[in-house]
């Protein structure tokens, strides 16, 4: 598809939709990854602090239950016995400090020997009450996560003789969190990379599908195309590979007499003429096919839509040829009338030559008799038609068809009881109905055995115009299919004449019937629109 220059310029100025989407996705992905990274670090810090608190609690409870500690804290010199032991435990467990203290807060041990003998800084009330607890507190070594456990006298579960405090400083915890950061950041970087790759692939596909256009040009193109689709005077119907409607413009709705939202409906659910439905369902190439749909004659063009060599649907265009068909029928009638006049002029010239020759031979009486007899025959037919038919278009049509039938060797007999006043029925519809029926009857009579005749009767009764056309042809084999588009008994026919008759009859609220054998009889009944005085 060729992109208009204005859209290409807009694409260069504002960037393609794919590029904008890629930038937006990258920003969203970065925000999400940063938020998740922060959450992961926070969770990691919390996990490290919980692990440190559990570790400190376990060590404190273990030391508080140690017989060595219980005996030393009530001995003469608790520091001398406990300091080496406690420092060894602290080194082995990688804790920041282990302090054993008396109930009055006097330290027996400390990583800094200068702090031994000084009062312990922190909360000990719960431990003095016999409960082991953990807390975050700022002591002489800075902020730390510590656990304080009571040391009970030997053989007692209530007599607290000392306390054990085990702590891990926040700086040490920070070192553990820092050690975990590479893994967290690595995962975040991997997520960011995979997300960026996915966003790039999506934007690349989107760029191909949107031809590199930006959001504003796409919106403008949609508005233009929508306006064009609804403004054109040609029906447009888009079908997908499943024969469901994807798009239908206003003209197609009017031509096909569609109501409501038909998008997503199958073509068989649209209530169209069976032949038109079959054409749409086949999704094959169709060029200027004529279809009768309801009260309209439609010219249908259909082109299959393909993608990567396979059919994905069809594009159907519809043109209304109802008025054109009516005008064509009237033109055919005028042409037939003109042809009849030519034939009559030719016959008149022959008769004139014959009459002149008789006069020159001195046979005047025979010349007068010959001229007057031929003139009387033609005049009687003209007088009968003009007197019986007040519709000028219909009268001209009958005279023309009579002359054309005579020239082709078929006798067109107009019933003496024929009488048609002003009917109010459109002249084009009368030409379509009567002209097609007579043409078919004349063709059928020519296909039969002599005598080849067509009989026409027209009369009005009970506010209706009645029409009957009979011929001496071979008859209609399948009367039920006679008015279907495409049905014909002619080798070169298109099968639309009787379909147009049925359409014109239906448009005027009438009925049409056919009887076969021998010959064929077509009967039409139409309501008149203007009362005819009697």
TrEMBL record:
Nucleotide-binding among keywords: yes
* UniProt cross-references to SMART domains, sorted A to Z: HATPase_c, PAS
The subcellular localization recorded is:
Cell membrane
Q: Does the keyword Transmembrane helix apply?
A: yes
InterPro entries in the record: 2C_sensor_his_kinase, HATPase_C_sf, HATPase_dom, His_kinase_dom, PAS, PAS-like_dom_sf, sCache_3, Sensor-like_sf
Gene3D superfamilies xrefs: Histidine kinase-like ATPase, C-terminal domain, PAS domain
Q: What Pfam families does UniProt report for this protein, alphabetically?
A: HATPase_c, sCache_3_2
* PROSITE patterns listed in its UniProt record: HIS_KIN
Q: Name one GO molecular function term.
A: protein histidine kinase activity
Q: Reaction catalysed by this chain?
A: ATP + protein L-histidine = ADP + protein N-phospho-L-histidine
E.C. no:
2.7.13.3
Give the main EC class.
transferase
Where does the Histidine kinase domain lie?
315-530
Question: Which PANTHER family does this chain map to?
Answer: SENSOR PROTEIN CREC, SENSOR PROTEIN RSTB
The name of this protein is histidine kinase
Q: Supply the source organism for this entry.
A: Klenkia sesuvii
């Amino acid at each position: 598809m060729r992109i208009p220059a204005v859209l290409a310029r807009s694409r260069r100025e504002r960037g393609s939709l794919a590029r904008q989407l890629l930038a937006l996705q990258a920003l969203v992905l970065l925000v999400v990854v940063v938020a998740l990274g922060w959450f992961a670090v926070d969770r990691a810090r919390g996990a490290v602090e919980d692990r440190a608190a559990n570790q400190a609690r376990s060590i404190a409870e273990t030391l508080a239950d140690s017989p060595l500690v219980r005996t030393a804290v009530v001995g003469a010199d608790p520091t001398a016995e406990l300091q080496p032991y406690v420092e060894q435990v602290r080194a082995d467990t990688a804790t920041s400090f282990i302090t054993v203290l008396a109930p009055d807060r006097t330290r027996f041990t400390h990583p800094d020997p200068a702090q031994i003998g000084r009062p312990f800084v922190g909360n000990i009330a719960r431990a003095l009450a016999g409960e082991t607890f953990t807390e975050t507190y700022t002591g002489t070594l800075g902020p730390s996560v510590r656990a304080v456990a009571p040391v009970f006298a030997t053989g007692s579960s209530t007599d607290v003789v000392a306390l054990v405090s085990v702590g891990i400083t926040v700086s040490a915890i920070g070192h553990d969190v820092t050690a975990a950061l590479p893994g967290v950041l690595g995962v975040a970087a991997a997520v960011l990379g995979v997300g960026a790759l996915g966003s790039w692939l999506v934007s690349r596909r989107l760029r191909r599908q949107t031809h590199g256009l930006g959001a504003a040009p796409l919106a403008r193109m949609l508005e233009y195309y929508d306006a064009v689709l609804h403004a054109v005077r040609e029906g447009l119907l888009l079908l997908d590979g499943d024969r469901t409607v994807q798009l239908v413009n206003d003209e197609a709705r009017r031509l096909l007499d569609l109501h409501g939202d038909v998008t997503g409906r199958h073509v068989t659910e649209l209530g169209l003429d069976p032949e038109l439905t079959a054409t749409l369902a086949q999704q094959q190439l169709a060029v200027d096919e004529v279809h009768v749909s309801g009260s309209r004659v439609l010219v249908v063009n259909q082109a299959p839509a393909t993608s990567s060599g396979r059919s994905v649907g069809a594009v159907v265009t519809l043109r209304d040829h109802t008025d054109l068909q009516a005008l064509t029928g009237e033109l055919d009638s005028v042409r037939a009338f003109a042809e009849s006049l030519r034939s009559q002029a030719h016959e008149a010239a022959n008769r004139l030559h014959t009459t002149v020759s008789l006069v020159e031979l001195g046979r005047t009486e025979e010349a007068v008799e010959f001229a007057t007899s031929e003139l009387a025959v033609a005049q009687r037919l003209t007088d009968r038609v003009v007197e019986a038919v007040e519709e000028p278009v219909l009268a001209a049509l009958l005279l023309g068809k009579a002359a054309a039938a005579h020239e082709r060797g078929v006798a067109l007999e107009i019933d003496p009881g024929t009488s048609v006043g002003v009917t109010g029925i459109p002249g084009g519809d009368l030409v379509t109905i009567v002209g097609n029926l007579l043409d078919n009857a004349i063709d059928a009579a020519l296909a039969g055995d002599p005598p080849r005749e067509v009989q026409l009767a027209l009369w009005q009764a009970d506010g209706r115009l009645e029409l009957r056309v009979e011929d001496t042809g071979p008859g209609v084999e399948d009367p039920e299919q006679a008015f279907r588009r495409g049905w014909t008994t002619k080798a070169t026919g298109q099968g639309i004449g009787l379909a147009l008759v049925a359409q014109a009859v239906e448009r005027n609220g009438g009925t049409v019937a056919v009887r076969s054998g021998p010959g064929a009889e077509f009967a039409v009944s139409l309501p008149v629109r203007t009362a005819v005085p009697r």
